[in-house]
Amino acid sequence: MRIGIAGITGRVGQLLIEEVRAAGATVAGGTTRAPEQATGLAAEVPLFTSMSALAEKCDVVIDFTHADTVVSSARALVGTGVAWVLGTTGLSAAQLGALQEASGDMTVVHAANFSPGVTLVQRLARMMGQALPAETYDAEIVEMHHRQKVDAPSGTALAIGQAVALGRGVALEDVRESGRDGLTGPRQTGAIGFAALRGGQIVGEHDVLFTSADEQITLSHRSFNRRIYATGAVRAALWTKGREAGLYNMEDVLGLPPL
């Protein structure tokens, strides 16, 4: 299988090269804004400055770039027969629409986090959101990442929050609370709260807490190495072979039955 890597010169891009090769697949090449500045493993493979050029050389593209590129990438990939494994978070309604439209013509796997463990935490969070009444169980999501991270809450934290909201049958934007400071008043019943911590070089930590007057249940996940995201993305890329067009997620890749 020929796998292309969008943003191949980034930190995850280098790990993806290693994981593609470890899986016995071929690194068909990657995109980068400045091919002449490529170093390390990225300098050893074909480099392109456009998604359409990369699509001509591969069967599937793994994309961990930026939300701003989603619409243009969707346009470049539609009609090429190439599958798309997308790990970009923070998509707007228009960008999600472009993704959905593209999936009518091609196989797309989209996930906020390709870790199998995080995927299972999201699933459990949805089940707990459904089983534990919002009137009596407060849901809070706490995440911590390295000091260089520029967005908060993390895309994974928001995806977990979306799972809780889905289980409760509500829209996350209607019940989300984050960044509490000062005299905020009492916690709103049914709110899904977020707290973001930053420091050091922590890869990623996420805790989901459901707390009532009588008990607390906590789901925790710790990432020790970014490689887990690359390994999961390559697993998803291999899974796309022979799949019908559609929009899939990591639960599909793991073979989990629908809830």
UniProtKB/TrEMBL annotation:
Please name the GO terms that the record assigns under molecular function.
Answer: 4-hydroxy-tetrahydrodipicolinate reductase; NAD binding; NADP binding; oxidoreductase activity, acting on CH or CH2 groups, NAD or NADP as acceptor
Q: Which GO terms describe its biological process?
A: diaminopimelate biosynthetic process; lysine biosynthetic process via diaminopimelate
Where the record annotates domain Dihydrodipicolinate reductase C-terminal, the positions are: 117-254
What range(s) does the Dihydrodipicolinate reductase N-terminal domain occupy?
1-114
Catalytic activity reads: (S)-2,3,4,5-tetrahydrodipicolinate + NAD(+) + H2O = (2S,4S)-4-hydroxy-2,3,4,5-tetrahydrodipicolinate + NADH + H(+); (S)-2,3,4,5-tetrahydrodipicolinate + NADP(+) + H2O = (2S,4S)-4-hydroxy-2,3,4,5-tetrahydrodipicolinate + NADPH + H(+)
> Looking at the UniProt record for this protein, which Gene Ontology cellular component terms does it annotate, in alphabetical order?
cytoplasm
| Catalytic center residues | H145, K149
EC code(s) of this entry: 1.17.1.8
Chief place where the protein resides: cytoplasm
User: Which residues hold NAD(+)?
Assistant: G7, I8, T9, G10, R11, V12, E44, G87, T88, T89, A111, A112, N113, F114
Q: So, what pathway does this thing act in?
A: Amino-acid biosynthesis; L-lysine biosynthesis via DAP pathway; (S)-tetrahydrodipicolinate from L-aspartate: step 4/4
- What keywords tag this UniProt record? Amino-acid biosynthesis, Cytoplasm, Diaminopimelate biosynthesis, Lysine biosynthesis, NAD, NADP, Oxidoreductase
Q: Where in the cell is it found?
A: Cytoplasm
Q: Which residues participate in (S)-2,3,4,5-tetrahydrodipicolinate binding?
A: H146, G155, T156
* Pfam families on file: DapB_C (PF05173), DapB_N (PF01113)
Q: Which InterPro entries does the record cross-reference, listed alphabetically?
A: DapB_C, DapB_N, DapB_N_CS, DHDPR_bac, NAD(P)-bd_dom_sf
Q: Gene3D superfamilies, alphabetically?
A: Dihydrodipicolinate Reductase, domain 2, NAD(P)-binding Rossmann-like Domain
Q: How does it assemble?
A: Homotetramer.
Q: Which PANTHER family match?
A: 4-HYDROXY-TETRAHYDRODIPICOLINATE REDUCTASE 1, CHLOROPLASTIC-RELATED, DIHYDRODIPICOLINATE REDUCTASE
The family assignment reads: Belongs to the DapB family.
Q: Which HAMAP family match?
A: DapB
**Described purpose of this protein according to its UniProt entry:** Catalyzes the conversion of 4-hydroxy-tetrahydrodipicolinate (HTPA) to tetrahydrodipicolinate.
| Protein known as | 4-hydroxy-tetrahydrodipicolinate reductase
The lineage, from the top, is: Bacteria, Pseudomonadati, Pseudomonadota, Alphaproteobacteria, Acetobacterales
Gene designation per UniProt: dapB
